[in-house]
């Protein structure tokens, strides 16, 4: 599968072969859904906590006598019906991560890449580098390429000037190839890969 290579100035810079086993698959929504659920569950902090009636600080003595007051009978001030009492079945600190096999995660990334290629939302650029970290210049270059909502993936390291210029552009994410993931690919309209990123992905899925 061949695709055109462009530059940041929107000029043609040749063509490149996209590996069929990475970019030529028929996307499966079920695998992509499982991967996104896994990612979002994994990044939850799980630090929410509410005190139970065993943990709130109140006296354990009986509030008032059992009979003769005309009120409902109560044995503890710590129960949830009173202000400041413990929460029944409240949230507890826990790990929200779920299990997903490594092979399924790798397959999901291939399907995400294939979905962008099939939808015509994949752009391959020669390189990502700027002479100076100027956001306005980069925004102009992105508008020429039609990028208003995109994930940009570079090689092992993102060039410093480009990273600094891109960080203040709305709806544009920039990642090194090690950070490429299914959720970020799917949440952005276009996927921009450098030739270095393509080579790294080919090496990764050999």
From TrEMBL:
Listed A to Z, the keywords are: Ribonucleoprotein, Ribosomal protein, RNA-binding, rRNA-binding
Q: What is one GO biological process annotated to this record?
A: translation
Q: Which GO terms describe its molecular function?
A: rRNA binding; structural constituent of ribosome
Cellular component terms, GO, for this chain's entry? Answer: ribonucleoprotein complex; ribosome
Q: Provide an example Pfam family for this protein.
A: Ribosomal_L4
The record, for InterPro entries, names:
Ribosomal_uL4 (IPR002136), Ribosomal_uL4-like (IPR013005), Ribosomal_uL4_dom_sf (IPR023574)
Q: Please state which protein family the record places this protein in.
A: Belongs to the universal ribosomal protein uL4 family.
**HAMAP family (alphabetical):** Ribosomal_uL4_B (MF_01328_B)
Q: How does it assemble?
A: Part of the 50S ribosomal subunit.
What this protein is reported to do is described as:
One of the primary rRNA binding proteins, this protein initially binds near the 5'-end of the 23S rRNA. It is important during the early stages of 50S assembly. It makes multiple contacts with different domains of the 23S rRNA in the assembled 50S subunit and ribosome.
- Name of the protein: Large ribosomal subunit protein uL4
Could you tell me which species this protein originates from?
Kaustia mangrovi
């Amino acid at each position: 599968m061949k695709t055109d290579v462009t530059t940041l100035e929107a000029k043609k810079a040749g063509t490149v072969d996209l590996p069929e086993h990475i970019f030529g698959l028929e996307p499966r929504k079920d695998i992509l859904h499982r991967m996104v659920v896994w990612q979002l569950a994994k990044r939850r902090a799980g630090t929410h906590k509410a005190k139970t009636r065993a943990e709130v600080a109140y006296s354990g003595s009986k509030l008032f006598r059992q009979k003769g007051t005309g009120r409902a009978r109560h044995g503890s001030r710590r129960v949830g019906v009173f202000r400041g009492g413990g929460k029944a079945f409240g949230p507890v600190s826990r790990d929200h991560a779920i299990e997903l096999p490594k092979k399924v995660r790798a397959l999901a990334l291939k399907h995400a890449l294939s979905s962008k290629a099939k939808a015509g939302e994949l752009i391959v650029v020669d390189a990502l580098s700027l002479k100076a970290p100027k956001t306005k210049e980069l925004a102009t270059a992105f508008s020429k390429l039609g990028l208003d909502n995109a994930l940009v993936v570079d090689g092992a390291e993102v060039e410093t000037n480009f990273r600094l210029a891109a960080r203040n552009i709305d709806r544009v994410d920039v990642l090194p190839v090690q950070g490429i993931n299914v959720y970020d690919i799917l949440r952005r309209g276009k996927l921009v890969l450098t030739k270095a990123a393509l080579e790294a992905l080919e090496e990764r899925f050999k």
